[in-house]
Amino acid sequence: MPLTLFEKVWNQHAVRQLPTGQTQLYIGLHLIHEVTSPQAFDMLRARGWTVRAPHRTFATVDHIVPTGSQARPFTDNLAEQMTLALERNCREHKITLFNVESGRQGIVHVIGPELGLTRPGMTIACGDSHTSTHGAFGALAFGIGTSQVRDVLASQCMAMTPLKVRRIEISGHLATGVYAKDVILTVIQRLGIEGGVGYAYEYAGDTISRMSMDERMTICNMSIEGGARVGYVNPDETTIAYLKGRPFAPAGPAFDTAAARWRALASDQDARYDDVVQLNAVEVSPTITWGTNPGQSVGVRDRLPASADTEALAFMGLTSNQPIAGTRIDVAFIGSCTNGRLSDLREAARVLQGRRVAAGVRALVVPGSQAVRAAAEREGLDDVFRSAGFDWRGAGCSMCLAMNPDKLNGREVCASSSNRNFKGRQGSPTGRTLLMSPAMVAAAAVEGAVVDVRELLGVRQ
Amino acid sequence: MSESRILAVSGRAVVLRGPDIDTDRIIPARFLKAVTFDGLEQHVFADDRQALSAAGQRHPFDHPESAGASILVVNKNFGCGSSREHAPQALYRWGIRAVVGESFADIFFSNALMLGLPCVSLSAPHIEALMTAVNGTPSLRVAVDVEHGAVSVTGSVWPVFVPAHAKDALTSGHWDGAGLLLARYEEVDAVASRLPY
After folding, report:
1. What separation, in Å, do the N-terminal and C-terminal C-alpha atoms of chain B show?
2. Tell me, what's the ipTM?
3. CATH of the domain spanning B8-194
4. Interface contact A154, partner B, CB < 8 A
5. Does the predicted TM-score (pTM) go above 0.95?
6. In a 10 Å sphere around its CB, with 0-12 CB exposed, 13-18 middle and 19+ buried, how is residue A267 labelled?
């Protein structure tokens, strides 16, 4: 019987049907971080349990880590305490931890792939909703809560109900200045932020096939913003080429054996889907959110909808029918598990080359990992950012969720390459977020307002 | 199993209107900077409450008549966004024992279930009727019957949707499923040993 990748991977990891009717699913890779794990370890201790598969568990510190000075102890005592708790838990349970001294620290969804921990055909769990990112490799990756982190630590399993699968076929070439971020914002705008509840999203089509792994990760990362807990792309030669030589990927003949297996995981040609939708990439333009959820977006040359939600408009200080271009910004943030990878920094730097951040705009770039930061520095990207007036910072989640000192103040408006524009998301209860691609953030930083990046790239419209 | 069966919950209700209330709003990230869940109830909807208070209004969680309420009534896609279990933890610790809504985000729903906090779905017109009834008479008792799939208030009984696994988990007392996952572990080892990685 023809199967989807979802079905193939699910079947391989299904242990049994539980009395509740759910499936007990084995988790091949468990990623943990400092914010959602300490309570899970405490629950484990309270029940006298131990970590079942420490060799399948990897930790890093990303959410609260400062991106200025990372000297220990951290200035923020709470951040220091959380880091100490993670270090203690990892030591006690013999879990590999990539801390700031390791050279391999970074956002959990950036380091998993770049270390080759994330591979096709895996089931992956992490106490973070953007775990869907890892689906870019043809893995089933689930964001979970702390009690489920406890379950995975204790049993290496989760209780899950199979998801339906919606295939999202995207075809056609993306225009210059249009990026994966614009594609996924458009998908969410069309299908709705609740449209994916109960579904895994399979992203397919020639647009996806041409995308790099970084771009596919951007797409899969925001599946959860469309309500889908899981998003994935079928593995192909791009996936295999990315993984070759990564520290935790198989090496030598074992790599070729694995690669053959990975190719066979892709959904079969005549696999059956619960739903199929199509998107023409040619219709996608640089896209920006205007509201307080990631589904509220428009193209850079468009006006806000006439029927825009009044509560969101009031919060944002915008009006229906107004053009989004020209909206003034106070802060520019490039980074996050959505868009904090090397290719994102390259695209932003391309816009910033020879330009300066507008007066009054506070601009920061936060590489997704220490490895991304080092690679960018080898290419001289840090010089481009610094010369333009950007603050070049250490790796972490930073102003995506503002659990470290990087925050908005008051009603500041932030052009952000992150994933959520929820009220208060960037650290100020009244702060305002405009989500867009890293190149668009760079353009907005230069202009001091939302602007079509294609104008700065010299693309004729 | 150490848990208890959850067949029904009843009590006074608090109404929170609006679609797509995300977990950042339920519990802003700055309150996640702690190694325990203790005290989260003090910060539930912190920013929304502060904003309304500054505007001279009162958030439903600040209404005096909401004190002691155990049922939360919401609209659609409640709990979207971040996977933080801190959100249902904060609601539970505040005193909420069941959530009645048009619909729920996936991760919030499963996090709530793990705490024994039922999230039951009611049609939009019935949610509106329930909200109107409760707001008109805050002292009303709302009964959420998980076992039979119904919500009742002042003589009206409406059918609610509870996914089969959640209903089974709650009514059998298996909502904290860790024990189930550790039972028959030889079957887990067998699956693990067959994996090619």
Report:
1. 33
2. 0.97
3. 3.20.19.10
4. yes
5. yes
6. buried
